[in-house]
Every structure is written in structure tokens, then in C-alpha cells.
Amino acid sequence: MDGDESPPKSSNPPLSSIPEEEPVFASTGATLMLPSQMPRDPRMHVALMFIILAGILGSINGYDFIEGDSGLVTDRGFIYSQTQTANLLTTSSPGSAILTGVVTLHDGSPGVNFSIEVVTPVVEDGVEKLTRPNAMTDSKGRFRLEGLNPGLMTMFVVNMSNPNEGMTHRILLSPGALFEPYGFTHLELDFATPEEFDLIEQKSNGLTRWMDLREEERGKELYDPTAAAVYDIAGTIFIGISGIAIVFAIVGWRSKSTLLLRTAAGLVFFSQGHYYSSCCLGLIAMLTTFGLHVEEI
Predict the structure, then answer these.
(1) By residue range, what is the domain housing residue 214?
(2) Could you tell me which residues come within 8 angstroms of residue 69 by beta carbon, excluding any fewer than 6 positions away?
(3) Assuming Cys at both sites, which of 29, 53, 164, 238 could form a disulfide with 62, CB separation 3.0 to 4.6 Å?
(4) Single pTM value for the model
């Protein structure tokens, strides 16, 4: 019927509805771990053991350096080794040692009018000769001798008021340090008491009043303690380096830090140690740390 009006039909098909899906959460099984929660690499135990052992040896070595009269190497041994390499490592040469000192009598008074004589080998025209440079003490018991050789020498101390009365010493003259052309040695000499000379005269049936201490002083030569100052400083440095290395190693092991362990191994390497034991152990510890994972902080 003309009067009926129907709605126009659409040419597009009706849109189909998209069904909504519920979100689904699934676990991958992965676990997030902090560096502090990660298991410690067993090689860290090995590195820690080597570092601590090397640090202990380095500390012992440093103490040996400071304790000058005992241990594997003494202050005298250190000074003597310098005299053997003086021409190579310093500008010192034969005749470059200077000896000064003071003679004191048994009652504390200065030894006046005493002769100080040092037997010194010299080479002239390829032939070694012995010279005996000497000096007299002044009113304060002081003396000074120049032109001596660094190293072990024999010294005679003679009471010129009674020339038959005197003492023989073994002395160690210091070479120049580094670029110093002269080596200085200062000695404080105590002259024996009259009673000691009387006893010597009695034992020798009146033949001599001379006290020869060369055998008694073998290995205990008279030397200038200040010459070993560098040796003592080196010992203190070795002890300090060893202590710092041990602290770094323990902190690095506790925090599982390879970098701290490696730093400790590098430090302890320079603490030397007897027969370079600390160097060897420190190197092994450092090589061990290179197989470890370096944490990203």
C-alpha cells in the first residue's frame, strides 16, 4: 500500500559483536635475584685464602725490616748490600765514605787525645794496598775521617796518653744514598774501663792491654742506625699495604665483589714477603679473580 512506509534497508551487513576475553596471567618461573642474594663463587674462597696468607707473610716481612738486629735480613745486611752495589745504584765510589763520631770514657767524660785509625784498602795502578788514615779526637772527644771506602772496615781506637791501651772494632761504613756522592757514618764509641784493661793485662801475663773485639763483633759491626731509616720506612709500608689488602679482601668476599678482591690481590702483590712469597701468592690470587663474574652495581 502506498500509505505504508517501511524503514529503508541498510546495504551493510550488521556488525558482529566481539566477545570480551578474561586476561590470563601465567608465571614464567623466572626469579629476580639481587647481587647480594647470588651464590658466592667457590673461587672467591680460594682468592681470599691466598690474599690473607700473602698479607700475613707481607706483615711478617715488614716487621723483619723494622726489627733491624734480627730476622732474615738485618739493618747491617741491608747497608752492606748497598755498599756492594754502590757504584751501580749511586754515585758513591771508593773513598766516598766519611766517618764521624765521639769517644766517651767510662765515667762519661769525653775521650780527649785519642787516635782513630781505619784500615782502608785502595787500588793504585791495579794493585790493592792498605792505607791507615787517622784522626785525633778534640776536647769534646769528636773526630772526623774522610776518604774511606764504604763497607766493612777495621778501626783502631788508641789512648795516646797510654799508646799500649786501645780497642779494635769492626765497623760498617755507609755508602751514599741514591744521588748523594758521599756516605756519612756517625759512631758513638765507649772506651773500656781501666779494670777491663787490667784484666786483659793479667790474662796475657803483662804482654798487652789491648782489647780486640773483631770476633765478638762479627755480625754485630758498629754502624750508623740512621742509615737504616729507609729500610725501616719500607717495612712500615709493607705492613700497611698488607693490612689494607686483608681488609679489602674480607670486605670483597663478604659483599661478593670481584673488584675488591682483585684490588686486594694487586695490593698484596707489592708487600714483597720473604723470598717474594707474597708476590707469588698475590699473583695467584689475582689470576683466580679473573675467572670470576664482575657484578654490575
Answers:
(1) 91-219
(2) 75
(3) 238
(4) 0.67
**Residue 237 domain-assigned (yes or no):** yes
What are the tens digits of pLDDT across the range 36-78?
A: 556 777 888 888 998 999 899 888 888 888 887 777 778 888 7
Nearest CA-CA partner of 118 in 93, 100, 91: 100
Model confidence pLDDT, tens digit, residues 238-270: 899 999 999 999 999 988 888 898 899 888 888
> In sequence order, what are the beta bridge partners of 102?
142, 188
Alpha carbon separation from 257 to 114, 226, 247 (Å, rounded): 68, 43, 13
Look at residue 267 and tell me if it is in a domain. yes
Does one domain contain both 193 and 273?
A: no
Does residue 120 belong to any structural domain of this protein?
yes
* Alpha carbons 297 and 293: distance in angstroms, whole number: 12
